Amino acid sequence: MKKALKPYSFLFYFLSIFVFFILGGLFSNFLGVAKNQGLAGGAIVFFYALMAALGALVLAIIIAGRVKAKIIIVSNFVLFSVLAFLLLLGYLRFLEKEKNETPPQKREMVPKPTVPVQSIRHIVFDNEMGQGFFRPDYFENEKIFFYSPYGENAWNGVAEPIDSLVFAKNQNGQYIVQYAPPYFFPEMVKLDYDWLMIKVLTSGKFMVEVEINRETGQTVLLDKFSGDLVYWPEFILSINSVEILEKHPQKILVKPLENAAANLTAYEFLQPIAVRGDWLKVNLTDGDFSILDQGWIKWRSDDELLVRYNLFS
């Protein structure tokens, strides 16, 4: 029993604790015990690692009291080698992660300012409407990677990223775009209202093709599961109000039919409340948004938007 109190035995205990704490954490992570557990995931991994370390300590005390001193000393060398290997492996993995998560452009140069985004109170699309919009989930993903639509296996979600968006919180706790390539010019960006919408041209099983620059028409692929795909009907119902365009004059009708009677009620705003194909049901309101009546207008025709929409009041 005296051997259990020797300095080499105490070293044996400490090395056993550290080595098996790390191994316990790695093994629990490999088993996926913390998957989909949110903030509790780290605590779960720590618990498993701690249990492994305590178990190793108990076993080390038993072994130290029963085996020869030479075996304990050799075990110390073995445990120290394992610990050094694990620490080196962790350091190399950390360096690789840092390298992979930093966009190439950010490593090689100071990115240019992104093209200023136009005011989004009134927006009219003169080009292809697309299927809707992609809203990146920057609350869960601080980096949204871009992929080339022409890369091998790109549509299967296994291509190498070509660029990215990087999000961060400012001193007021609001999300900002910390990094974006100079060609980033989407349909709308107003993060202080949690609005970042990128037009979707093609939706796939794993990826979506988006128009990343509305002036040049440049497209990239985004991971479909890194945000939300908002189709046009859902989007048009989420905005504050719409306006009939002068170049597409139309009457407000009482029914969604071309030959229906016109609603002649005077109004200030048209608020979307329902979509039926190319028809949009709206509330006719006064300046205080009190509802005066209801009617129908056409909001699109083929691939052309017939109304101007206001995101905010």
Q: How would you classify the quaternary structure? A: single chain
Low-confidence stretches: 102-126
Structurally, the number of domains stands at 3
Q: Count the DSSP helices.
A: 5
Described by the principal axes of the CA atoms, the overall outline is: elongated
Strand content: 25-35%
Based on CA atoms alone, the radius of gyration comes out at: 30 Å
Mean of residue pLDDT values = 81
Q: What share of the residues lie within helices?
A: 25-40%
Output the structural class: alpha+beta
Distance between the termini: 80 Å
Number of strands: 16
Largest sheet: 6 strands, antiparallel
Order of helices and strands: HHHHEEEEEEEEEHEEEEEEE
Write a short abstract of this structure.
The chain is α+β, with helices and mostly antiparallel strands.
Explain this structure.
- By secondary structure, the chain is an alpha+beta fold.
- It folds into three domains: 2-101, no CATH class; 132-235, no CATH class; 239-310, no CATH class.
- The protein contains five helices and 16 strands.
- It has helices at 7-31, 40-64, 69-101, 104-108, 232-238; strands at residues 132-136, 143-146, 163-169, 175-179, 188-190, 195-203, 207-211, 219-223, 227-231, 241-244, 269-276, 279-285, 291-298, 300-301, 304-305, 307-310.
- Strands 1, 5, 6, 7, 8 and 9 form a six-stranded antiparallel sheet that branches. A three-stranded antiparallel sheet has the order 2-3-4.
- Helix 1 packs parallel to helix 3 (69-101).
- The radius of gyration is 30 Å and the shape is elongated.
- It starts with 6 loop residues before the first helix and ends with a strand.
- The model is unreliable at 102-126 (pLDDT under 50).
